[in-house]
Amino acid sequence: MPGRQRFANRREFLAATLAGTAAVALRGSATASEAAPPFPTYEKAQIAITLDLEMARNFPNWGDTHWDYEKGNLNQAAKDYTVAACNRVKARGGRIHTFVVGQVFEQENVEWLKQIAADGHPIGNHTYDHIYLLAHSPAELQYRFSRAPWLIGGRELPDVIRENIALTNIALKERIGVKTNGFRTPGGFATGLENREDIQNILLGLGFDWVSCRYPAHAGMEDLYGSGRKPSQLAFDEILRAQADSQPLRYSTGLIDVPMSPVSDIGAFRTGRWELESFLEAVEMGVNWAIENKAAFDFLAHPSCLGVVDGNFRAIDLICDLVAKSPEKAELVTLDAIVAKAKPQLSPEREPS
């Protein structure tokens, strides 16, 4: 990329990034003690493992695209992976924060979800049909509605969005017997819900005081599409840089956002067509950054994808291992726990950068 400073290695890049962050934090202040931190910090790094319970196109086979129309029709492999992952993390002293597409509650058997909830794994709302919240017309909300517009015909866009989210709250309560724990938008947005007070107010009106929707932009991924090559240095540098942009923030409406930390499994295995080893390297880099900076790390994955490329749970075990190696500096938590600790540090003035 023209004009971009290059660094010899990721360690050098990290040092420069932290120095730049510190300079921004100190600008206009006489001493470091007088400056507000650039993002919430914690006594221990807050490491969260989250799973979006939905089907993903291109998995398990690259030609699979029908999932776009039935995102919540989880296959048995995705459900089995979810349960096994939850059991694995619980055995290590943590819990996985899941986000469910409401369509799954139309399936005959949801005992697996009941067991997850009974074991203490929070279940959040991921809309009913995996809709695009930043859509400008009802047809843009979801492939399903474009194919069958009569499903939402005659209704205003805000009403369709509100109902689609509310339905998952109702379904979760009626079929599983638990209250929704948080909300995650389908897809991640580089600027989150900035300048979309309309969507923020819909979520606040439905009882959500926090969401997970920001996914910071990072370069270096697209050039690898379909190649299977090892990611470029730029890709790793950008993922590392984006960690500071992946920290909790508060919008002007009061809604709190807990961003997803790059790189997600979809970003790596669909967009970048990475090999597993490269993904593990990026995950380790991000978790270590959070530990070094007393920050948060929100690992985002999808059982329908990660279960295909990482059937032996290497990514999840790696995260648990990194936390176990630094018990005085890091802990496995859920997103609601991150919100509780970050909230006192998030002033109304601190908005998305």
Automatic annotation (TrEMBL):
Residues 79-190 form the NodB homology domain. GO terms for molecular function: hydrolase activity, acting on carbon-nitrogen (but not peptide) bonds. GO terms for biological process: carbohydrate metabolic process. It comes from the Bacteria. This is Polysaccharide deacetylase.
